């Protein structure tokens, strides 16, 4: 008879690759973990682990057993959920690990919803990066992870986890004022956007970007009398003096009001490609942060390896360094809302996205304490997706 606690130990060692790290995750001593693994090998009659440098890896039999362990442990989660549902399960504590931006955007609103609808459910929130939160769920430290898709993340069909997609957001380029790419006239190969060379624009007598010789005195290049502009918050060259509480970005010549959510800055002006940033000095998250991986992968696809001279997992700090002229950065759009954008230029860039999802141990998604929380997270994410900023 195989004991399930030994199966949990095997999975922890497979996830963490060392006995010491698995022991820390399971709140056991390394000796206790080793004893459980030896006992498990006696139960199955085969070696399950072998040395791999400074760590360990599963043998072929170990990998077979791990697959069954994932199914057994998921079924136990379902059993626990069904028993909790039978006994109503309307009161208890749920632990959620999430990265900081998602705490503000979806976790905090979900907590507020539960306080009103399910006051018996107490939610405890832990700040953790996306790669850390998934490990915390698998180790049983938390019940729910709000995580980010990245190159090293468990696959969508991973039998250990159940995923609930929440939202995705683009990355924007953050440039110091005065950077060559901040001037739209110096952006390379920008045939698909606005603010191009007027000599290359087809006849366009009724709109903006006309022959500058035909423009009445208009030193700010707005091309319009702001008093005659109809309500048009989402489109071209509106009132150059937006209300004081509006964010704005610069196109290098005049301020453009940001479309969409008043508290969420969006990129304005002509866009850039990732390839335009080759050879730049970079500011970004530390290696291991999922956003670092997304940025690095986007640059690799564009044909270069980014040189990160400055590292911070705090995007407000990243923007501050860009404002100081320390380099360029790519930042998830919604993370810009907390940053001081007064001394930077924001440009949209196609391609990289931060895809956010909730994850629980497979089988636990039916637990009566988790169902209301997952529903509240999805409702908060739906409201976020419907905001014009995304």
UniProtKB/TrEMBL annotation:
<dbReference type="GO" id="GO:0032993">
    <property type="term" value="C:protein-DNA complex"/>
</dbReference>
<keyword id="KW-0238">DNA-binding</keyword>
<feature type="region of interest" description="Disordered">
    <location>
        <begin position="175"/>
        <end position="269"/>
    </location>
</feature>
<dbReference type="Pfam" id="PF00126">
    <property type="entry name" value="HTH_1"/>
</dbReference>
<dbReference type="InterPro" id="IPR005119">
    <property type="entry name" value="LysR_subst-bd"/>
</dbReference>
<dbReference type="InterPro" id="IPR000847">
    <property type="entry name" value="LysR_HTH_N"/>
</dbReference>
<dbReference type="GO" id="GO:0003700">
    <property type="term" value="F:DNA-binding transcription factor activity"/>
</dbReference>
<keyword id="KW-0805">Transcription regulation</keyword>
<protein>
    <submittedName>
        <fullName>LysR family transcriptional regulator</fullName>
    </submittedName>
</protein>
<keyword id="KW-0804">Transcription</keyword>
<dbReference type="GO" id="GO:0003677">
    <property type="term" value="F:DNA binding"/>
</dbReference>
<feature type="compositionally biased region" description="Basic and acidic residues">
    <location>
        <begin position="180"/>
        <end position="238"/>
    </location>
</feature>
<dbReference type="Pfam" id="PF03466">
    <property type="entry name" value="LysR_substrate"/>
</dbReference>
<dbReference type="InterPro" id="IPR036390">
    <property type="entry name" value="WH_DNA-bd_sf"/>
</dbReference>
<feature type="domain" description="HTH lysR-type">
    <location>
        <begin position="2"/>
        <end position="59"/>
    </location>
</feature>
<comment type="similarity">
    <text>Belongs to the LysR transcriptional regulatory family.</text>
</comment>
<dbReference type="InterPro" id="IPR036388">
    <property type="entry name" value="WH-like_DNA-bd_sf"/>
</dbReference>
